[in-house]
Amino acid sequence: MESLGPELLKLVQIIWINIILSGDNAVVIAMACRGLPRDKQRPGMVLGALVAVVLRIVFTVLVAALLATPFLKIVGGCLLLWISVKLVLGEDEEGGVVQQTEQLWHAIRTVAIADAVMSLDNVLAIAAVADDSTTLLIVGLVISVPLIVAGSAIIMALLGRLPILVWAGAALLGWVAGEMLVSDPWLLSTFGEQLMQRIELPVAALSAVFVVALGYFLVRRTARLKAQEQEA
Q1: What is the pTM of this model?
Q2: How far is it, in rounded angstroms, from Cα 229 to Cα 145?
Q3: Are the C-beta atoms of residues 88 and 167 closer than 8 Å to each other?
Q4: Which residues contact 210 (CB under 8 A, 6 or more apart)?
Q5: Largest Cα–Cα distance of the chain, in whole Å?
Q6: pLDDT of 16-68, one tens digit each?
Q7: What distance in Å separates the CA atoms of residue 207 and residue 85, rounded to the nearest whole number?
Q8: Which of 111, 119, 132, 204 has the fewest CB atoms lying closer than 10 Å?
Q9: Structural domains in the chain (count)
Q10: Residue 39 sits in which domain range?
C-alpha cells in the first residue's frame, strides 16, 4: 500500500501532462473531423483520439532512437506544414463527392500522420514520468482518451461557429512545425544550439504565416476555378 502512493502520483502526472500536451492533437482531430457528416463526427473523434494515444505509446517506447535521428525533425516539420495547409482546405479541395466511409478514414489517417509527427517531442515528458513503467504509461494514456475526445468536441463546436478559428488552428500547427524544424539534431550540431534557440521564435512565426498565406491562396484559387466552371 505504501508503494501505491508514488505510483498513483505518477499516474496523475502522466494524465495531466498528456492533457496539456494534447492541445494540438485536439485541434488536429477537430479540424480533420469538422467536414464529416454529423453521424460520423463522434466516431471520427473517438477513433482519432485512440490513434493518437496508441501512437503516443509507441513513440514513447522508441523516442530516444527517433529523436536522435538526423533530419527526422526536418522531414516531420515539412510534413506537418503540408498537413496544416490540407486541414485549412478541408474536404472540398478534391473536387468531388467522397463517400462517408472514405471521409471517415481519411480524417483518421490525417490525425494519425499529424500525431506521429507532433508526438516526437511530447513523449519525452511522459516517458520521464513513467520511469520505465510501460504499464503505468499505457494506463495513464488510455485514461486520457475521453479527455482528448471532449477537448476535440469543444474545439469542433467552436470551429462550426467561428470559422476564423480554423485559420488559427492551422497557424498553431504551422508554429509547431517551425519549432520542430529548428530543433533537428543535425541543425543543432551544425549551427549550434544557441543560434537555433535564437531563431526558434522567428522561424515558428514565419511557418505559421506561411501556412495561413498558402492556405488563403489555395482557397481563393479553388473558389475562382469553381466560379469559372459554373460560368462555363
Answers
A1: 0.68
A2: 44
A3: yes
A4: 81, 174
A5: 77
A6: 666 655 667 778 888 888 878 888 888 888 887 787 777 767 776 666 556 56
A7: 11
A8: 132
A9: 1
A10: 4-231
